Amino acid sequence: MNATATRVHVDLAGRAYDIVIGSGLLESAGALLKPVVAGRDLIVISDENVAALYLEKLQIAIETGGLKRPEAVVVPPGEGSKSIESFGRAAESLLGLGVDRRSIILALGGGVVGDLGGFLAATLLRGVDFIQIPTTLLAQVDSSVGGKTAIDSIHGKNLIGAFHQPLLVLADTDTLATLPPRELKAGYAEIVKYGLLGDKPFFEWLEDNGAAVLSGDPDALRTAVAKSCEAKARIVESDERENGARALLNLGHTFAHALEAETGFGDTLNHGEAVSIGMVLAFDLSVRLGHCSPNDLMTARGHLLRHGLPVSPPRTNDFSPSSLVRRMYNDKKAERGSLTFVLARGIGEAFVARGVDSGVVETTLLRALAA
Ligand SMILES: NC(=O)c1ccc[n+]([C@@H]2O[C@H](COP(=O)([O-])OP(=O)(O)OC[C@H]3O[C@@H](n4cnc5c(N)ncnc54)[C@H](O)[C@@H]3O)[C@@H](O)[C@H]2O)c1
Ligand SMILES: [Zn+2]
After folding, report:
1. Catalytic site residue 126?
2. Distance CA 138, CA 282 (A)
3. Which atom of ligand 1 is nearest to the CA of 190?
């Protein structure tokens, strides 16, 4: 294995696994996979963009490691591949290629492929093993960790899913070199989230090293991805099924989901951008409710802004605070009759606040929209 790779161990009862993070992992995939795969057949699922860049490289590396060259199912890129129809097509393709209970599905791609591949693994033949090779920053720091897998319904995103933990996650930071800069920044917003929600020293490290992370510096990337995986892993270990601590991972997300829904999940705002705005709004709301100092709000906001992320809702949309709040009531994580937010007492000190008055939320939005 690459000497500078970092391993993060995720310890879930009976289903512990490692996340390996570093540069050059795709080339050494054969050697890394061999002890985990133990002679079983691998079958890759990927999307067209990622397959064009990395599928053959992965297949060759697996062969070089002395394993059988895996077949692959390639789906179109984008959220559309998480539809029920697309899931059905991919399931038939995988079964057509002879997936059996000893097969291992290898999800090579971003969060879309990870979610689709993971849910296929959770359901085909009542569950087969899978391995994640995340290739977007968002997938490396968020979606590949924690075992949530899902596809979309016409009634909402991620409504059809299962908890299914992978056998191994290989996060090769070299693959991020081909990622469009906007996608890289979207993943960076989730990295900042881990600092803001529970780790002030990590946030301070990002203040010094964020630019290096975004410019693709391998050491900075490895550290940032590893710290993020570590943070998410510790939270998921304490609360696998989201009854408590896991909710903290939703910092900025109640606002973000409302903004994403209001912009129709289109090109105006991607998820990371919505999360960036959402985190600023969550700090702003925390200040208004007297939990947090305005200084911490300015520090968080300044960091996101300096790293090229939006900090207020886009002007292109005619957002109305009351319709955004209505979206929050519809958020599947909102409890009926009251709004629940992840708020902060300061940088690195997030907490779950229930029963937040929607009037203060509307004021926060009104000011942000007028700014
Ligand atoms: N399961 C979870 O816990 C969890 C958490 C967060 C998000 N998600 C899900 O993740 C999905 C979003 O993931 P995403 O942001 O990775 O999007 P994505 O998978 O659509 O990837 C973004 C784009 O980048 C391309 N791409 C991927 N890797 C590349 C590379 N190395 N070089 C060049 N292009 C590359 C893809 O083809 C795609 O066009 C959403 O569906 C969301 O619901 C899941
Ligand atoms: Zn998110």
Report:
1. yes
2. 21
3. 6
Q: What is the residue-level pLDDT of the chain in tens, covering all 371 positions? A: 455 899 999 987 678 899 999 999 999 999 999 999 988 999 999 999 999 999 999 999 999 999 999 999 999 999 999 999 999 999 999 999 999 999 999 999 999 999 999 999 999 999 999 999 999 999 999 999 989 999 999 988 899 999 999 999 999 999 999 999 999 999 999 999 999 999 999 999 999 999 999 999 999 999 999 999 999 999 988 876 666 788 999 999 999 999 998 888 778 899 999 999 999 999 999 999 999 999 999 999 999 999 999 999 987 767 888 889 988 886 655 555 578 899 999 999 999 998 898 889 999 999 998 87
Residues, the chain, total? 371
Nearest one of 171, 131, 130, 224 to 26, comparing CA atoms: 171
Ligand 1 interacting residues, C-beta cut-off 6 A: 47, 49-50, 53, 77-79, 82, 109-113, 115, 135-136, 138-139, 142-143, 146, 148, 157-158, 175, 178-179, 183
Q: Report if pTM > 0.90.
A: yes
Q: Domain extents for the chain? A: 6-178, 181-370
Give the fold, CATH level 3, of 6-178.
Answer: Rossmann fold (3.40.50)
Report how far residue 173's alpha carbon sits from residue 218's, in angstroms, rounded to the nearest whole number.
Answer: 7
Pocket test for ligand 1, best of 183, 239, 260 (most atoms within 8 A of CB): 183
Q: Does the domain formed by 181-370 have CATH 1.20.1090.10?
A: yes
Structural tokens at position 319: 């957002």
- Report which of 148, 157, 152 is spatially closest to residue 240, judged by C-alpha positions: 148
User: What residues are paired with 10 via a beta bridge?
Assistant: 17
| Identified catalytic residue from 250, 270, 301, 327 | 250
